[in-house]
Design brief:
Blueprint lengths: L3 H11 L7 H5 L6 E5 L2 E4 L4 E4 L2 H4 L8 H11 L13 H13 L4 E7 L2 H18 L7 E5 L8 H6 L3 H4 L10 E3 L13 H19 L3 E6 L3 E2 L5 E2 L2 H13 L3 E5 L14 H4 L5 E4 L11 E6 H5 L21 H16 L2 H20 L5 E7 L2 E9 L4 E2 L6 H11 L2 E2 L6 E4 L7 H20 L1
Helix pairs in contact: 4-13, 5-13, 9-10, 14-16, 15-16
Bound molecules: pyridoxal-5'-phosphate.
The site of pyridoxal-5'-phosphate (PLP) has 14 residues, from helix 6.
Length: 451
Amino acid sequence: MTDPTTLAAWDHRHLWHPFTQMADWLAEEPLIITEAEGSVLVDVRGRRYLDGVSSLWCNLHGHRHPALDAALAAQMKRVAHSTLLGLSSPPPIELAHALIGVAPTGLTRVFYSDAGATAVEAALRIALQYQQLRGASRRTRFASLVEGYHGDTLGAVGVGFSETFHRFVAEAIVPAVRLTPPHVFRWSRGMDAEGALAASLAEAQATFAAHGPELAAVIVEPLVQGAAGMWMHPPAYLHALHELAHRHGALFIADEVATGFGRTGRLFACEHAGIAPDLLCLGKGISGGYLPLAATITTEAVFDAFLAPYEEFRAFFHGHTYTGNALACAVGLASLQLFDEERTLDRLAPKIVRLRERLATDISPLPHVGDVRQQGFMVGIELVRERASRAPYPAAARIGQRVARAARARGVILRPLGNTIVLMPPLAIAAAELDQLVDVAREAIAEATAA
Ligand SMILES: Cc1ncc(COP(=O)(O)O)c(C=O)c1O
């Protein structure tokens, strides 16, 4: 392997890191990960770090899990990739079969791609074409949640919204119809949870009454709006949006790229509300955090609308070179099997409870912690400059980055969302490591906010 100093120099000279102010990056020595095991990442100099955000929310069973490594190695001996355009192959077939077995009722067809954003793009385009094909030619718009995030390709950006992310592309995207979810801490101030829910539902009803006939679909991150800062809404809101979408002739798209595969305590967040979407977007954890893979799963009713003689050109003209990649699907299948073999969700339940208790005793009392939001193994700790007024830290204070830096010095990797500290460890994290994560988060928040 290239020596650490040369690697750092080449990183600085040749790489452009995502979601990164490169001026800051270039001013520091990069942390270069060379190995990992379980919930621990090891850097080029042999230092060990707890992976507190599951390598950006995707690792489930730990790094270098023997079963996943074996599935990958076995598939490598057969074929790494052959196309799904005109051909098929066992791993995508078998994974599709397994996914349909665990997905919400009624979902029967798997369309593969390779990132969360591409799973969303496919869902949006399937919804648009489906509506056209069934003669609803006016249904060309989408509704989505305020501060939703669905990925960084332009269609996905259009249905998401964040001022920062939209700043330079606003003129080039088609904005969605916005629905305000019931977030008590910032947007529904002065209201309790029930009041906020009632207000959001009333707004949604009015919005659907005004825009219903234009909508191809409604897209929602079920229960947790991750990138917004781990904003949570109750299952009742999700349930009501699903019902409103159908009542107004729109499809319902559940973007479970972040919430899928056990993150919320159930395999899929939709299960908490007892709903089955028309389109389900999966990414991140679908390959256990090993390889780029994503899926858009839909119903037979949607699929059937695309069936016709070739010359009518009703086919879904959409896809990617690496769609259904055999290596990624083989690992995905092994990852899904681990949920049964290791009883992942059963063993997760007490860890979720433990995490809730530790957050209440160790994190909530800290003077600059404004709000602690948790749904399963998704946690957002929002830091505020002043607790009483909930006044946010200014961006220039870089409070999230300072906490992450203090955590790193203590051997834990965190990646904040602005002023919100995210804890999102691998589902398989050991109890002692979970305690270490909370201990370090507490110390790091205390140190950064004391300054
Ligand atoms: C809900 C949701 N949808 C889509 C995406 C985009 O996924 P990707 O980064 O794999 O394109 C993300 C990524 O964080 C996400 O949280």
